[in-house]
Amino acid sequence: MISKALKESLKGRLTRRLVMVVIGISLLTAILTTVLQVYFENSHRRERFAYFVEHMAASHMPLLSRWIENGDQDGLALGLSSLDNLPKVDFAAIQINGRTLGSSGALPEEPTIEKRLPFDVSVDGVTKKATLLVISHYPTITRVMILDGATLLILNMIQILFIACALLLVFHLLVIRHLDKLADYVSGLDVRRLQKPLVFERPAADDELQDVADATNEMTQRLAQTYDDLQQFNYFASHDLQEPLRKVCIFGDVLKDSIETGDRKEIEYSISVMQDSADRASNLVTDLLTFSRISRRDSQSDWVPLETIVSIALENNQTAIAETGIRVISNLRDLSIRIDRGMGTQLFDNLISNAVKYQHPDRPSFVRITADVDEEHVLKIFVEDNGIGFDNRHLDKIFEPFKRLHPRADFAGSGIGLAIVRKIVERAGWQITARGEPGGGATFIVTVPSDCVIEGSLRD
């Protein structure tokens, strides 16, 4: 028999060791996370500071060039002095062929950011290469970053410890609280019965083990999918979303200085850039939420006519189709497919939108949607266009979230449309692939298994 004191002792030691392990891992995770955050924050601050210095120096170059060409030394000295008096600028000088034509300010002793901006000037009818040298001291970011690091460390420790406590609670509910039952069961065993041969009901045990194995595999797959989603979100947060937010921060500083100087054009330009960046950030977040909802949404599969969901998707893109003049060719058989109606519509909506977006500028465009059922009753749906196409070497990349093959200035969008398509196809248990040729169009092929396809009328 196992005494109650011994049971409590065993359970207490297990709990204490588990708590110590969790606290240690939490502290290490908090410290590592804080170091990475401080490093990237310092890099972003320095980058923003350097951009500000270069932008302010470039705004003075037209006047300085005019004064040099006119030989106006007083104007040149005044311009360099005004540049030197700007916030964060310590020293400014004009150099022509290595000779200093004029300077203002003093070289700082602290770590500096040096910008050399070359430009052409005409002196006595001869075009010469001139350089505007601007030197600024880098503020004592180190002390600020130390304070930020301490604050971030505390916040990270609180968050991670909170998560760790939640995990401990789950572990207690799932494991530790059952130790008492296990101990009571063991203490109630008759030693004499243990000496008898044990008889196992193997079929029942095998079934239970198989159920546990199936549940474990399903949980492992969900955890792997969650990890992939977290990796994609981390890429989104550290790359795509940072770019418009960084612009808002930088041009916020520019706007502040422009308001102080009364430069109306610079104020309007800064506001325009900030608005565009805010809209882009909003669209990115909206697309990410759509992608996330597809991952978490409970699928309600039903038999839906293929032609119906394709017609709805075409109607959703009707405005873009009318504006671009693209010709739509739809040749679908009398088929029904088993899929969540909303997800199916979103699937073809995104494929058609992709074909409309990447049209070739030098020829009439079309998008052709066809379907074919093979001998094994497997359905293949083809969405073909004669747009700009893509290199087949980048096949995997086009289905990854926020990965783009073309510059954002050439084609708008967040780069998540085809990622949503792949997510829907995977949720339905289907397959998707594509083939393309640069300048020769692209074809997306959705493969629907035979158990998700019927011909003719809908199944009861």
Count of separate DSSP helical elements = 12
Please give the number of β-strands: 12
Intertermini distance: 62 Å
Low-pLDDT stretches are none
- The biggest beta sheet, please? 5 strands, mixed
Rg from alpha-carbon coordinates: 33 Å
Into which percentage range does the β-strand content fall? 15-25%
User: What's the arrangement of strands in the largest beta sheet?
Assistant: 6-8-9-11-10
Please write the string of helix (H) and strand (E) elements.
HHEEEEHHHHHEHHEEHEEHHEEE
User: Structural class, please?
Assistant: alpha+beta
Can you tell me the number of structural domains? 2
Q: What number is the mean pLDDT?
A: 76
- Tell me the helix content: 55-70%
- Which word captures the global form? flat
List key phrases describing it:
single chain, alpha+beta, 460 residues, 12 helices, Heat Shock Protein 90
